[in-house]
Amino acid sequence: MEKLKGSLYVALAAASYGVLASIVKYANLQGVHISLLTGGQFFFGLLILGVLQIREKKRPNIHDRKSMLLYGLSFGGTSIFYYLSLLYIPVSFAIILLMQAIWMGVVLEIIQTKKVQIKKVLGAALAILGTLFAADIFNVNTRIHPQGILFGLLAAMSYTCNMYASNRVATNTGNLTRSFYFILGGSIAVSAYWNLDLLQHFEWKHFLYWGIPLALFGTIIPPILFTIGMPKIGTGLGGIVSSFEIPVSLACAYYLLDESLNTFQWVGVLIILISIVLINLNKKGRTN
Fold first, then answer.
1. Residue 78 belongs to domain spanning
2. Per the count of CB atoms within 10 A, which of 27, 40, 71, 183 is most buried?
3. What is the pLDDT of residues 41-99, one digit of tens each?
């Protein structure tokens, strides 16, 4: 029962992340600037998490605070680059590029452990192959947007750092406090990147209307649910369940933005999901 509950928490967290891109894309099509969307997301996220973490008993030391703030920069980078990619490519392609964190995570693990696991290398190769199909790269009529691809890959690199920080940095600190410091670091990155654009494009109406839901779906609900659910099911099963973000993101893009995928692209999505399962299975065929 505990594993079932944990899986549900992780699935809901992934689903929450899955709706973000469609909300941002829709708001941008309405003329709302990306700087206001990211600024609102991190402002309200930081505000609410700041209140929630006050009574937590497991407080960080100075070293952990510095580490969380440093790695928190990648949380801001993920949102900045991911949302910028949406200016050039569809949501369905942006989520596929973000999921390149699958093989990037494998590469990071190999560098750290200096050990190569064949099944993970094979899984990473499958993820890349699936991406080629999902991006419809074999269609001669497909238009490639270099800027969109660049921002998407930068978002994936930042997302890889996010996952590393969530699993390794200041793990003895309370979960809400960790989330607060990560988002504080992300807020610094957002403020530094957009700087004067935050003032130039600021409108209270849009700041409240879009900032609050983006904060809930992007910086509040997922971290809390992940920290509750992951310990119950482990990182292996957690990695598989969290891939629920992909179909949710594609479904939102279809219903909200009228985006659709052809047969080859759906095959690519399926290959990517298989690669996630393969990477997170141990030798006995069970999740780590």
1. 2-279
2. 183
3. 999 999 999 999 998 888 889 999 999 999 999 999 999 999 999 999 988 889 889 88
